[in-house]
Amino acid sequence: MSNPKSNSITTKITELDAQIQWFYSDEFSLDEAESRYKAALKLHQEIEQDLSALKNKITVLNVAK
Amino acid sequence: MQPSSFDSASPVPRFSVSEFLAITNQTLNYAFPKLELVGEVSSFKVSKGKWVFFDLKDASGTVSCFLPLFSLRTALEDGMKVLVSGAPKVTDFGKFSFTIQSVRPLGEGSLKKAFDLLKDKLTREGLFAPEKKRPLPEDLTTLGVISSVNAAGYADFIKILDARWGGLDIRVYNCGVQGASAADELIRALDYFNEQGTVDVIALLRGGGSKDDLAVFNDELLVRRIAASKIPVITGIGHEVDVSLADLAADVRASTPSNAAELLTRDKSAELRRLRGSFSSLKTYLDHYLSTLLETRRAALARAEREILSRLSLIEKELASKRAVLDSLNPENVLRQGYSILTGDPSPGNVVKITTFDKLISAKVTHVQPKI
Known about the structure:
The complex is a heterodimer of chains A (65) and B (372). Chain A is mainly α. Chain A has one domain. Chain A has two helices and one strand; from the N terminus they run ααβ. Chain A has helices spanning 4-24, 30-53; one strand at 57-60. In chain A, 15% of the residues are buried. With 372 residues, chain B is an alpha/beta fold. Helices cover 41% and strands 23% of the residues of chain B. Chain B has helices at residues 17-31, 108-124, 152-164, 182-196, 211-214, 220-228, 245-249, 257-264, 268-329, 331-336, and strands at residues 35-47, 51-57, 62-68, 81-90, 96-105, 142-147, 169-174, 201-206, 233-237, 252-254, 341-343, 351-355, 360-364. In chain B, a hairpin with a 5-residue loop joins β4 (81-90) and β5. In chain B, α3 runs parallel beside α8 and α4 runs parallel beside α6 (220-228). The longest helix of chain B is centred in the C-terminal third of the chain and has 62 residues, at 268-329. Chain A binds chain B through residues 1-3, 5-7, 9-10, 13, 16-17, 20, 23-24, 30, 33, 37, 40-41, 44, 47-48, 51, 53-61, 63, 65, and chain B through 139, 141-142, 149, 158, 161-162, 165-175, 185, 188-189, 192, 198-200, 268, 271-272, 275, 278-279, 282, 285-286, 293. β1 of chain A pairs parallel with β7 of chain B.
């Protein structure tokens, strides 16, 4: 029923939002900041690529009327 | 049909009453298997909650009409102009009647009247209650579309959907969206998606058209089916100003098919802009955070430096003070002022040692007396 590709992008966007939010949270630590920033940047690039490659699938049903 | 009691002596056919009614109906059916009549409703009434009777009239004639109540899919009232389709028939009691298969209001005034009457009725039944509305899923993945694939509204919908988002599995039930059979086709499409249960949302779409073209979306059975749909329904029918009963029964009403596409999907361009904006804000935030952090440390260091210097200065002053005290106590300084130090026993005849600033003197004591 669901489209895994679209779901995956939605999940990635949610994950990226959470990753960015970490920098503003109380959990922020300077020691982890650099690696986390790089990871978020990589995820952002992935999302950009996924979104540009994503296409809708259209099926006109062959329903007996 | 041959008369059962044909009298060869009679120059004209002779029938029993039943035979006459049967042959008359046969003749009517042959001549008018199905036809449409236009007229004004008069003496409208519903009998026993099952049957609908009214007269259809124009300036000089009247035809009695009949139909089962379940076949009436619009609201009717005396004075409304309607188009009815059906077939003429003579009843067993010899009454001429028009048996209606379908009836629909004709003309703007009647369409409006039918809309208002049915809207009132269905509102009272709670079909349009706000608490019945379900939100569209945030992560739409499978979409059922009911529309005519040849319609401009459908093309607009798909175009905008493709531009805004991707990865959707869109299943299109192609059917007529205007005309006599459209309401039934739309109902079958709704039933299909509800029976299959494989889509997250059903989008019911039709581009702009005349009031008459859009009247199918005020069909009572269709409106009830939309309200009863297990799957959330979004409508995008006509233009912004067109509001149908189907719109009121749907979970979400979009003003047009294009607007339906906008309501169903996120805009990937906007999403990308948002994510880029988030990163830009994060970068600015981190730059500010780091510069503030460094500035704070720098300021702390400067404070520490000032404190150290201040303490050093105090210590230096303290040392200088002690040095001054020490200096003042130094015997050399006393001798420098002209004083001398006598050592030894200062008794007459003894030799004592006298130390001045720059000399060491040995002297013999000749006389000693108390100082007064």
